[in-house]
Amino acid sequence: MNKHIAAVVLGSAAGMALAAPAPSIDKTYSRYVDKTGAISLPANIQQDWSHLGSYVVHTSEDGKAGIDVHQVYTQPTSIDYYRKHQRFPDGAVLVKTVSGTASETLTTGKVNYANALKVTFVMVKDDKNRFPANKAWGEGWGWALFDPTKPGKSQTTDWKGEGFNNCFGCHIPVKQNDWVYTQGYEDILTP
């Protein structure tokens, strides 16, 4: 029996050694933002980041009704800070994936579930106005849109851009809430 316990403890310790460290806000500007303010897409968000919450958004594309799933992630240290101060700290990164859905009837009823990734949005909190000449930065945040068909580079050149790249237009309703929709995260952000 003691051999079995020792094997479980050693196996667990080995697994912990292989786990990636959770991203921290103090490394944001060296990991995810270059010296010009270009934002990169963080890797492994679903494995290494904290899931803030999800939104189900009813859409209409090409005249057809649909449903998208928006899932939002951040660093665990950003959540800790938010719970204490009711705002996101300098260096916080919010990552939102938007996926289409598929549906089918299961024994539990008709279900919709996320399938193909459509777009990923990234917001980086900037309390210091680090990039005043970069139009992808404004109102205390850096804004980025990543198209999965064009990996590696943000498509955002101006956060008040056109069409799907108009961060300002979507976020203006939450201007008084530091430009962030937090309704879907109340359970995790409440102290």
User: How much β-strand is present in the residues?
Assistant: 25-35%
CATH topology term = Chalcone isomerase
Are there runs of 5+ residues with pLDDT below 50, and where?
A: 1-18
SSE pattern, N- to C-terminal: HHHEEHEEEEHH
Number of helices: 6
Round the Cα radius of gyration to an integer and report it: 19 Å
Number of strands: 6
What do the pLDDT scores average to? 87
What is the domain tally? Answer: 1
- CATH class call: Alpha Beta
CATH superfamily: Cytochrome P460
Shape: globular
Amino- and carboxy-terminal Cα gap? 42 Å
Main beta sheet: 6 strands, antiparallel
Structural class: alpha+beta
The CATH architecture is 3-Layer(bba) Sandwich
Signal peptide: 1-19
Organism: BD1-7 clade bacterium
Keywords: Signal
Domain Cytochrome P460: 49-182
Structure summarized in a few sentences:
This protein is α+β, with helices and mostly antiparallel strands and 191 residues long. Helix content is 23%, strand content 32%.
Descriptive report:
This protein is an alpha+beta fold and 191 residues long. The protein has a single domain (25-189), classed as Chalcone isomerase, CATH 3.50.70.20. It is built from 6 helices and 6 strands; from the N terminus they run αααββαββββαα. Strands 1-2-3-4-6-5 form a 6-stranded antiparallel beta sheet. The longest helix is centred in the N-terminal third of the chain and has 17 residues, at 2-18. It is globular and about 50 Å long.
